[in-house]
Sequence to fold (454 residues):
Amino acid sequence: MPHDPVPALLARATQLLEAEFALLPEFGAAPDLAGMERVLEATARRLADNYPYFHPLYAGQMLKPPHPVARAAYALAMTLNPNNHARDGGRASSAMEMEAVAQIAGMFGWTEFLGHLTSGGTFANLEALWVAGRLAPGRRIVGSEQAHYTHRRISGVLQLPYAGIAADSRGRMDVDALEAEVRKGDVGAVVVTLGTTAAGAVDPLDRVLELRRRYGFRVHVDAAYGGYFRLIPEALDEPARRAYAVLGEADSIVIDPHKHGLQPYGCGCVLFRDPSVGRFYKHDSPYTYFTSKQLHLGEISLECSRAGASAVALWATQQLLPLVEGGEFARGLARGRAAALELDRRLRADAHFEPLAAGGPELDIVVWKLRAPTAEQASELARKLFAACAARDLHLALVQLPHSWFAPASPAGSGNHEGPVTCLRSVLMKPEHEAWLQRIWERLSAACAETVGE
Ligand SMILES: *Cc1c(COP(=O)(O)O)cnc(C)c1O
Fold:
């Protein structure tokens, strides 16, 4: 493991924070240090049963280590454990949440907006679809077949009808199929995904917005994964760049700081372009504490208690790494993107592999199939290669994709491209992945030679 700067950072900051409360009378019993030490040792041993998510050789699922400053700030906030439901529960951390969320909204060019942090992307999307449902009761929600699975489920919870729209062979929403749906006149909101979970595909938001002008519906952008790529337009290809360029025209946006924003889990964010949707959140709870006349976050959030520490960690991270084009944070994103392009290039040059026929990665997620006569054989090979890589400490992921996304394996192939095929997937979201790509490739090649029996 790399040298961990967090304990030292935390010790100094904890002293400073304790000094702020030094005038209070002493209290409290001596903690059972020996007992806690014993339990923590057991905890460390239990935690070893995990993939090494922090390491560049972990290149599987969407797991990016939180920045050390986020971990330190989170732990520091734990001294107080603020609750960002209301200012009574977390005065400083509520103010920090508002500042941090305003910086995120600023990435999309929004200065007047309504927004807050949530426990994650799912709850943030739920709030966005809930507002969509309040504005257009009973109307349908539609999203591409590659939209996150929770949209259908959330719509069920909200009792809003939901329909899936076909995706193209790159995983992007098919705009003609969308038009055929919205023409029916009963679509209340379209979920547009900027960065699908499976393949990092970018729906053509610019073209969906044209349809909005013609047919009138709400556009919710699920950028839980891909939102931060707004900061590196120069590193994106058309048409993804065009989609990001108009992100600010969405009605609502979800982005997950705990995905690409270097935060510990428990940090999603929902933003509404029109702040007046805050009226739907209005409640008057007899328990809610009001010591200030200012609107508090519990009045614009469906969740009641929320971790103030999440806001503190996010605020600290964005102080160190501002969300600006050309900044260090943006450069980190660009390095993962470069790693994905390089991996795709090597896969295309290697006869064992079959990357997506329609083109390379749109963001930093690479998916590819093993070349084999049938989907069953390709799937079996993918599972074997996955295990052979893991045996070499290279951790990839598996994903089911439509077989039709790949060119026929060979003229002698089965020709049957219906149904899913198990593929390999690598999310190259750590800045270190760029420098580690050669070592990743060596392990992948060796594992592949073993898998195909060379
Ligand atoms: C991860 C993800 C979600 C769900 O977010 P959670 O934070 O896991 O609840 C929704 N949409 C997309 C596109 C995602 O990648």
User: Anything to note?
Assistant: Residues 120-122, 125, 148, 150, 193, 195, 197, 222, 224-225, 256, 259, 268 surround pyridoxal-5'-phosphate (CB under 6 Å).
